[in-house]
Specification:
There is one protein chain. By secondary structure, the protein is of the alpha/beta class. The protein contains 16 helices and 24 strands. It is globular and about 70 Å long. It binds flavin-adenine dinucleotide (FAD) and NADP nicotinamide-adenine-dinucleotide phosphate (NAP). The site of flavin-adenine dinucleotide has 32 residues, from helix 2, helix 3, helix 4 and helix 11.
């Protein structure tokens, strides 16, 4: 494989963009890009194999601590799957879903076009993403080289030789430690016909979609990916049938919040077949899917479709380290690590999606950083048990801490502060209302969201928060930290809100905080 030494060259973000574009056009071709410092004679403290969120953030931290690192990635850019086929397209599709739901809720009202019976293009949005995704890639290559001083080899797969050595483009690099950040891949559906054209997952959707899906789409799975993509397809005006082997959105922990979320999905016309599985997929003479047969609790159902999307979770890419190094692997193919991110093999660490759930950006980045800290001699423990979480439907759904049921069971007396209020006509009041929900509040109040805060009546501490609407994700990051520090209703009610705030928690807490004996609101 050819090598292009770029260490002494300085590319602008635009240069990077053009170069990545060309290399992505011809995957597996083009030279390996070597940004390796020939003047630095130090042994590498770590090779990060995989330059996704985990590898890049870990490397940056290690470098900032004075260590020497090298990232190796098979793709011609740093940043990994999040900007290439996962979080970023998901957010683009979810924004489209939110916009389209708004437009479809008010056909012909105000300035909205009448979209009844109109299907908007799925392919156009996928193309938009594919054409624009190298922008973030280019920034990450630029930032990593010019601003973070990272060493890296891109556009060439690395092959593990032993616990200290990786081969890339015919060259061998040695390090004191190896940090594996090889990510994960979508789990495939196993049934007759699953290999037909027109059966997609989050990876091949953005790489291969070359036709406009017809009027019906089938989505398999009931977790974040299936729901996020399913809501987008639905919002484009397709009949959307979700086939869920168990229960839809079991991941949303609070029952009432989940109920509000699922009700709004169904109200948008999504057909949900729970307790159901795809028995087989049938193809047309060109080898494209033309229909699926679903086994439901009420018998078999046939659905004609030329587009099936599977969101079935991911399988960590642990095969190479298991085969070459013998690292121990768990039942889901995840590399097993201790709280120091060490695998069963000395000097070999593993991070991010490769070590299994939760497969989220915060964990990928933090595990990379914690591995760096340990390698550089700091005592660390990283084993995330609690984190704020979210997903998109047509809305953004966010949660942290205990559910109402959990809090009742664990704490006995709790206080629930909720909006809309818990009255028979609660859903008809124009609250909550804030950014992106004002039109719903005034025209379709039941669609303006749902939020609740759970408080331990004895200690007055906030122990859980749940939100359906828009714009709460950001504050939940901080609320989660404040809850860990023990924030009380009194302290929350004493904060300064930026009214109209997407969560109404500060002002609602203030209304109750004066009471010695707290009551629900
Ligand atoms: C549809 C979808 C949407 C998501 N949305 C969100 C979201 O909104 N928010 C959120 O927090 N999380 C989200 N996630 C999860 C998030 O994308 C992942 O947790 C995160 O990207 C994992 O980072 P990583 O570094 O572990 O792996 P990756 O980013 O996958 O990095 C692995 C890297 O290893 C490289 N590699 C593999 N094999 C080799 C080899 N042999 N040699 C060299 N390089 C190799 C790959 O090229 C890749 O760059 C989403 C996931 C999906 C599937
Ligand atoms: N932060 C975000 O917004 C975001 C967005 C997307 C993805 N992600 C992350 O990316 C990872 C992948 O997401 P995901 O939603 O695909 O995974 P997931 O959360 O594991 O959900 C997988 C879904 O597919 C179902 N399933 C699994 N195997 C199946 C099979 N063989 N047949 C039928 N159904 C099957 C599961 O059902 P059971 O419940 O019955 O197992 C579940 O409903 C997750 O870790 C997720 O957290 C994050």
């Amino acid at each position: 494989m050819d090598i292009l030494d770029i260490h002494a060259q300085h590319f602008s973000i635009g240069d990077w963009q053009a170069r990545i574009d060309v290399l992505l056009e011809r995957p597996g071709e083009g030279p390996a890009l070597f940004n390796v410092d020939p003047r630095d004679r130090r042994e590498y403290d770590a090779i990060y194999l995989g330059g996704g969120a985990g590898g890049r953030f870990g490397s940056a931290y290690l470098r900032a601590m004075g260590g020497r690192q090298l990232i190796i990635d098979r793709w011609p850019f740093l940043g990994g799957s999040c900007p290439h086929n996962a979080c970023v397209p998901h957010h683009l599709f979810s924004e489209c879903a939110a916009e389209l739901m708004l437009a479809r809720t008010f056909p012909g009202k105000l300035w909205f076009r009448d979209l009844r019976g109109v299907a908007t293009s799925i392919k156009e949005v996928v193309d938009l993403f594919r054409e624009g995704r190298v922008g973030p890639h280019a920034i990450m290559n630029f930032q990593s080289k010019e601003q973070l001083d990272l060493e890296y080899v891109l556009n060439a797969p690395g092959t593990i030789v032993d616990a200290h050595t990786v081969d890339v483009a015919g060259r061998r690099f040695r390090a004191k430690n190896l940090v594996l950040g090889l990510g994960a891949r979508p789990q495939a559906l196993r049934c007759a016909g699953a290999e037909l054209k027109g059966v997609f997952n989050f990876v091949n959707l953005v790489e291969e979609l070359d036709y406009e899906p017809g009027p019906t789409v089938v989505v398999v799975g009931g977790g974040k990916t299936a729901v996020e993509y399913g809501c987008f397809f639905n919002a484009t005006g397709r009949r959307t049938v979700m086939v869920v082997r168990d229960e839809l959105l079991r991941i949303v922990p609070d029952e009432e919040t989940r109920g509000y979320t699922v009700d709004r999905m169904k109200e948008q016309g999504i057909e949900v077949l729970e307790g159901s599985e795809i028995e087989r997929m049938d193809g047309d003479p060109r080898g494209r899917v033309r229909g699926v047969v679903v086994r439901t609790p009420d018998g078999r159902r046939e659905v004609a479709t030329d587009f099936v999307f599977c969101g079935l979770g991911e399988i960590p890419n642990s095969e190479m380290p298991a085969r070459v190094l013998g690292v121990k692997v768990g039942p889901g193919n995840e590399v097993l690590v201790n709280a120091q991110l060490q695998t069963s093999v000395p000097n070999v660490y593993a991070i991010g999606d490769l070590i299994g759930a939760p497969m989220e950006m915060f964990k990928a980045r933090k595990s990379g950083v914690y591995a760096a800290k340990h390698i550089m001699g700091q005592a660390i423990e990283y084993d995330p048990k609690e984190w704020p979480d979210f997903l998109h439907t047509h809305y953004e759904v966010t949660w942290t801490g205990m559910t109402e049921a959990e809090a009742r069971a664990k704490l006995g007396k709790i206080i629930v502060i909720k909006m809309p209020p818990d009255t028979p006509d609660g859903l008809e009041v124009a609250l909550p209302a804030s950014d992106r929900t004002m039109l719903y509040a005034f025209l379709e109040p039941r669609m303006s969201g749902h939020q609740k805060l759970i408080i331990d009546a004895r200690t007055r501490r906030v122990v859980g928060a749940h939100h359906v609407g828009y714009g709460a994700k950001d504050s939940f990051q901080y609320l989660h930290a404040l809850m860990k520090q023990g924030i009380t209703i009194d302290e929350l009610g004493d904060l300064d809100e930026l009214f109209l705030n997407p969560t109404h928690f500060i002002q609602l807490s203030r209304l109750r905080a004066g009471a010695r004996e707290l009551r629900d609101l």
